[in-house]
Amino acid sequence: MAVIPVALAGRSYDVRVGTGLLPDLAARCGTLLRKTRVPVVTDANVHARWGETVARALEDAGKEVRWLVHAPGEQAKSWEGLARTVDWLLAEEVERGDHILALGGGVIGDLAGFAAAITKRGCGFIQLPTSLLAQVDSSVGGKTAITTPAGKNLVGAFHQPALVLADLDTLTTLPPRELRSGFAEVLKYGVLGDRAFFDWCRAHGGAVVGGDLMMQQHAVEQSVAAKARIVAEDERETTGTRALLNLGHTFGHALEAETGYGQDLLHGEAVALGMVLAARYSARIGHLAAEEAILVAEAVGAAGLPVEIARLQLDTDGTGLAKHMLHDKKMDAGTLPFILLRAIGEAFLDRAVSLDDVAVFLDEQLRG
């Protein structure tokens, strides 16, 4: 097992990566589970696959498990899902010193974390990420949120978990599409700041999404370590460093909004497409060599992820997609910073991008 610290002033915590962590859950959480009753927030799919394991681990330690099971999918990460979760926590008489367990992927982690942030003005929570995407990205760093009709993740809070347990065994139950989707966030760390890791992802991405445990462990460890360094430097995204983690997300969130945040385009697929678009746009305006943009697209495509938005057959144009970006949470004084590339491994924040020019670019991409 690897232990990766997230070093924050007064609120540091560990991310533990390995196998067999959920069956040993009570011991791993230790004194964080201070009461007999343990509230666990999950979704129906994860509950069916891992609910018995978690229940047995806690009950063997003398705990009583209390379940809140949401329907699977992005729809749970909503005002309705948040209200249901908070009402349930209050009914369970959760106290500020308690820790809620968030068992699931990014949707459950974001939802349960936000509910913890606002219940009793801040309860503790523990992330138990069960998807590759959640293990390498959303479970680490304390960003919690819900999606509203205005856009994705526009309502939320910074609320750090007390512990993250990334059990690699949970990846064995993921559908191949979900593994590929999660790999997009792995590849992102190489594209934005580590050329050597990008090259590793190109060489071993097939093994990661194919289920090779050793390769998956390396991918998760390296990704978490990269995110931990960035979060420690810029926890609340005030200096611009943490904003680099949004590489691919401005384009990607616009695509998700256009497709309705559903199964037509998973979040990781949108990020993958967004990275390709960010690289192509960087090359278009002279920041990035065209050959580098091609390499990014090839790496994304080699992992079985989408590289052309024309294939989505969207009923919109570049202007329509650009309008979604106006609701991006990174908007500042009426302008939207874009995360672009000077080279693979060298992302930067560009505050001088014209949305009109982005719309023209997206029109070109939509035509294929």
From TrEMBL:
3-dehydroquinate synthase N-terminal domain location: 71-180
Q: Which residues form a coiled coil?
A: none
Subcellular location(s) per record: Cytoplasm
Q: Does the keyword section mention Amino-acid biosynthesis?
A: yes
Note whether NAD occurs among the keywords.
yes
| Cofactor(s) the record lists | Zn(2+); Co(2+); NAD(+)
Known catalytic reactions: 7-phospho-2-dehydro-3-deoxy-D-arabino-heptonate = 3-dehydroquinate + phosphate
Q: Where does NAD(+) bind?
A: 106-110, 130-131, 143, 152, 170-173
Which enzyme type, at the first EC level? lyase
What GO cellular component entries does it have? cytoplasm
**Alphabetic keyword roster:** Amino-acid biosynthesis, Aromatic amino acid biosynthesis, Cobalt, Cytoplasm, Lyase, Metal-binding, NAD, Nucleotide-binding, Zinc
* Residues reported in the UniProt entry to bind Zn(2+): 185, 249, 267
Enumerate the spans annotated as 3-dehydroquinate synthase C-terminal domain. Answer: 182-330
Free-text comment on the cofactor? Binds 1 divalent metal cation per subunit. Can use either Co(2+) or Zn(2+).
Provide the primary localization: cytoplasm
Q: What does this protein do?
A: Catalyzes the conversion of 3-deoxy-D-arabino-heptulosonate 7-phosphate (DAHP) to dehydroquinate (DHQ).
Q: Which NCBIfam families does its entry note?
A: aroB
> What family does the entry list?
Belongs to the sugar phosphate cyclases superfamily. Dehydroquinate synthase family.
PANTHER family linked to this entry: 3-DEHYDROQUINATE SYNTHASE, 3-DEHYDROQUINATE SYNTHASE, CHLOROPLASTIC
Question: What is the designated name of this protein?
Answer: 3-dehydroquinate synthase
Q: What organism does the record attribute this protein to? A: Croceibacterium mercuriale
Its lineage reads: Bacteria, Pseudomonadati, Pseudomonadota, Alphaproteobacteria, Sphingomonadales
